[in-house]
Amino acid sequence: MPPAADAPAILLEKLSVRYDVPREMVNTLKEYAIRKLVRRIENDQLVALRDVDLTIRKGERVGVIGPNGAGKSTLFKVIARVRRPSSGRVVVEGRVAPLLEMGLGMQGELTGRENVILQGALLGFARAEMLGRMGQIAAFAELEEFLDAPIRTYSTGMSARLAFAVATDVEPDILLVDEALAVGDERFRARCHERMDHLRDRGRTFLLVSHSLAEVRGSCQRALWVAEGRVVRDGPAEEICDAYHEWAASGAAAAPQA
Amino acid sequence: MFRSITAGPGGPRISATTVRYDSADTGFRFVEEARSLWAYRHLVRELVVRDLKVRYKRSILGVAWTMLSPLLQMVSLAFAFSFLMRQQIHNYPVFYLAGSLFWTFFSQATGHAANLTVEALEIAKRIHVPHSAFVASAVTGAAFNLALSLVPFFLIAVISGYPIHATWLFLPVAVAIGACFTAGVALLIFTLASRFGDVRETYLVLLGPWFFVTPIAYTKEILPAKFQIIVRYNPMTYLVELFRAPLYDGWLPGRNTFLFAVLSAALSLAIGWYFYSSRIDDYAARS
Question: How large is the ipTM?
Answer without folding.
Answer: 0.84
